[in-house]
Amino acid sequence: MKCRELREDELIPGTVSGISVTTVSINPTIYLPYLQSQLLSLGARFVRRHLNHINEVKSIAPHIMAIVNCTGVLACKLGGVEDKNVYPTRGQTILVRNECSKMYARGRTVREPKDESTYIIPRSYGGGTILGGCRQADNWFLHFFNGLTSGALRSIIISRKESPLVALRSVLN
Description:
Elements: E1 2-5, E2 19-22, H1 28-41, H2 57-60, E3 89-90, E4 92-96, E5 104-106, E6 116-122, E7 129-134, E8 136-137, H3 146-159, E9 167-172
Antiparallel strand pairs: 1-2, 3-8, 4-7, 4-9, 5-6, 6-7
């Protein structure tokens, strides 16, 4: 991974500092089905069930060699696991048709809410671009906040002078 501080002439007007990072971005709608197909070809079996306790797995597959617990945030409620250190981090993004050649992230200003941020993540193979967003720790609310959407879009439009955005869908993650 390459990382460097941006020179003053590279900064967006009004920005105090910036960092350039070379990293990897994976499009989950392409990568996860590929990963699943690879595991299936190796003999893996996927089972989706509602469990109250992790030990119930033994009754579903008594001769299993390995268990991958994919409960995510609900690990805090699964019997036998009950990980109290797990909590949700609510995110909200917008998928647009526009293609972007680079990934961008912008920190908030002192006048913006502490749980909002602005980022642009291109998705490979014509997957559009993800615009964000927010990062709200311990927020279980499952509905979309339109105010966050307009705030993220406003920040992105101000920071990037590119073609008009064509929204495909809003995503709660």
